[in-house]
Amino acid sequence: MTIEATTAESSPPARRAYDVEAIRADFPALQQRLPSRKHPEGLPVTYLDTGASAQKPQVVIDKEREVYEKYYANAYRGVYRFGALVDEGLEESRDKVARLIGAASSDEVIFTSGTTMSINLAAHAYGKKMLSAGDEILLNEMEHHANLVPWQMLAKEIGAVLRFIPLTADGRLDLSQLDAVLTKKTKLLAVTGMSNVLGTLNPVGLLAERAHAVGAKILVDAAQSVPHVETNVVRDGIDFLAFSGHKLYGPSGVGVFYGRAELLDAMDPFLGGGHMIERVYRDHATWSVAPAKFEAGTLPIAQAIALGTAVDYVQAIGIDAAHAHEQALVAYAAERMQTIPGLKIFGPPISDRGAILSFEMDGVHPEDLAQLLDLQGVFVRHGHHCTMPLHDLLGIPASVRASFGLYSNREDVDRFCAALETARHKLL
Question: Which residues contact 138 (CB under 8 A, 6 or more apart)?
Fold first, then answer.
């Protein structure tokens, strides 16, 4: 038997021309027809929930399957051929992620289970060691619970203080108030790169500069921004960055935590166990260096390897090209939605937001609206989107969210808006 692994190139893949129909053809889930009593030919899939999780291109599906079918083994344990191929695949994937986010070294890239685990890692491994009672952690109310609750838990445990950057009426950080809340007491600024509700794109480079000026570190929740906006941790002075593979057209169950090398060196492990040790004695142990220090136990092996394939995929298309396509699509969608009576879109102007539109319809419950859209083959998210404080600020219990990806097209928007009109007539 010959073991053949589709190993990755050591340099970024060649760019392809942006052709959204060709891109859609790469995604099997988008080629289906949905059963419908009114439409014998079936309904097309109108997937507008990419902010929750992106669909997967065939190459990513194939890569994960390849690992299981051809050379699966545990990672960093065996010198036999399967083990060697797994180790090689993981390190190639780590290299690709490092290039994607502009990291100085792949040793600064740690595989986790997702964004939530990555931010909890930062709170435990950095926050517990480096922050003390009275130190301030600066947040804001547009944060996803994953970048809010871990800091609440840390503050309660060590006696730190949470402070918040106010938001403007249209859902941006009110930078005119930054001097009042970012002081020498601030030790960490945690902020999303892109709001998962408002779509707001935050100025992380500016925030990093201001944070460093008072001696604070900055953590960026990049779950929404990495798949849609070019990211460079060195250029923007980002100390910590977290994102998930499944929002980047990769597998679920794998995520990334980036930390600057000197910060990782100073941090203690988050979890103890296999692989993260240098030497274990009866009563104590010493730690390996990063990234192994923070990768205790068995990694999500096939998922982490296939994440590298997803990185290849988006880089071949070009995140800048995808962003331009998505911006044009969101502008088109917002223009059409504004013609629907009683519909209010939350968030800043299109120029300051990414591929997300959250909204409410007067007199209509978000869940009822989402269900009626589903009957027409349009998949959107409803609820508080793990941002209860933001919805409290907006004065609503829930909203409906349409989020777009590099495979979304104008026909998706047209079907979405037609479905909104149909639902409005049925519900009002």
Answer: 163, 164, 165, 181, 182, 186, 188, 189, 190, 211, 216
